[in-house]
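Q: What residues go here?
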């Protein structure tokens, strides 16, 4: 058993933990930082995508960017274009290697592979205990490992679950300039399902079957079979025409409750555990980057850390309404998605999903989709915290 003291502990060296460490290192933070994770070994189990304007985070490791998408829902299909925005992709393996290489050069950053057991704090210090019963103390701990206690259960506890194949085909069949953001599967019952395609080259793409529902599918075979059928129907690819290079499975919570900023007084929540996952979409990457930028600036200036503020009430309310619709009617959900993409530019949709709109712009988006499901959703959610 040992005790060690640091200025800051970053518990969880995944997306949010390493993003914070990177911003601190790049901003010239001089305090002692411990970054702790069960493993820093390279992993390639996630592909992070996000939309952004001209200056995306981590420009050095952007794997691919696109300006055009295919979209299909019910009787509407077509190509949609981004003007202000681009859609970017960063591979988890590139991200980890890039950030860890930089941190290893810094004398004030310590990387430790250990399993974290728990945190505690009093008004002066925060403590982290490992499974080996070692204790590490700091002024603040930033954690992305444990889910904090929330005030109430989620009203609509949906999960975004998906399985993807990254494939290499024998002949080029993909248009590398065009992603498929959503190609809805109307045959799916018990939730909303769509195919998501990221073409990296003419002969290489990630094809993901994604579902918004209460439970993941019973077996991985069901996702696999959907992908194989799609590859056959959409690209005329038989099983022997492609090789699966990598698989990606994920479950992202789509919860409507507000996460607390702190786990205990000096332990601050980051990433998914900090409620940074947008409930209605599952996108997290850019929201994490926005927060760690202002958080690291406050720490570098020697100020109290800026706590995560959460989304504005109106955006949380829109998310709640969307989750209500997704939970109650697959048909109405599909119509909402169809009209959202049919009646708005992609830039407007991304502004709205980035929570970067005026109330007037919100009203424009709201009036572009069927009103009945929203009226029903409001009727069921007149009182919210
Ligand atoms: C497959 C997948 C794909 C995704 N794609 C996108 C996307 O395209 N765009 C987007 O915006 N969001 C995406 N997300 C959602 C979200 O961005 C990711 O889940 C992201 O990794 C969340 O960041 P985080 O820091 O909260 O958690 P993580 O990145 O998971 O980091 C948590 C870290 O804690 C460590 N850890 C856990 N338990 C312990 C313990 N007891 N002791 C020590 N260490 C521990 C883990 O090893 C991990 O490194 C995706 C999620 C998944 C699962």
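A:
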């Amino acid at each position: 058993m040992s005790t060690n003291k640091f200025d800051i502990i970053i518990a969880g060296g995944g997306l949010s933990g390493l993003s914070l460490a990177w911003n601190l290192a790049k901003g010239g933070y001089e305090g002692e930082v411990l970054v702790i994770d069960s493993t820093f070994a390279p992993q390639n189990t996630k592909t992070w995508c996000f939309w952004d304007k001209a200056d995306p985070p981590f420009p050095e490791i952007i794997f691919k960017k696109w300006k055009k998408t295919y979209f299909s829902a019910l009787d509407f299909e077509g190509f949609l274009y981004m003007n202000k925005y681009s859609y970017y992709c960063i591979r988890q393996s590139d991200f980890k290697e890039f950030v860890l290489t930089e941190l290893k050069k810094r004398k004030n950053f310590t990387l430790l592979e250990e399993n974290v057991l728990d945190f505690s704090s009093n008004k002066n210090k925060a403590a982290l205990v490992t499974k080996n019963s070692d204790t590490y103390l700091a002024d603040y701990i930033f954690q992305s490992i444990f889910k904090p206690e929330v005030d109430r259960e989620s009203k609509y506890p949906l999960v975004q679950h998906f399985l993807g194949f990254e494939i290499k085909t024998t002949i080029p069949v993909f248009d590398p300039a065009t992603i498929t953001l959503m190609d809805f599967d109307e045959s799916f019952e018990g939730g909303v399902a769509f195919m998501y395609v990221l073409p990296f080259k003419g002969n290489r793409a990630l094809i993901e079957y994604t579902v918004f529902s209460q439970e993941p599918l019973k077996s991985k075979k069901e996702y696999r079979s959907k992908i194989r059928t799609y590859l056959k129907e959409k690209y005329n690819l038989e099983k022997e025409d492609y090789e699966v290079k990598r698989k990606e499975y994920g479950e992202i919570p789509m919860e409507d409750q507000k996460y607390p900023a702190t786990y205990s007084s000096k332990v601050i929540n980051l990433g998914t555990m900090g409620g940074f996952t947008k409930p209605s979409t599952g996108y997290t990457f850019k929201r994490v980057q926005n927060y760690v930028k202002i958080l690291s600036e406050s720490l570098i200036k020697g100020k109290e850390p800026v706590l995560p503020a959460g989304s504005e009430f109106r955006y949380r309310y829109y998310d709640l309404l969307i989750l209500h619709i997704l939970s109650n009617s697959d048909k109405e959900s599909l119509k909402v998605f169809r009209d959202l993409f049919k009646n708005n530019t992609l830039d407007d949709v991304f502004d709205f999903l980035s929570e970067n709109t005026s109330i007037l712009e919100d009203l424009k988006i709201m009036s572009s989709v069927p009103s009945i499901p929203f009226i029903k959703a409001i009727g069921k959610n007149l009182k919210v915290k």
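A: Context that may help when evaluating the design: Residues 321 and 377 are 5 Å apart (CA to CA). Residues 220-235 form the longest helix (16 residues).
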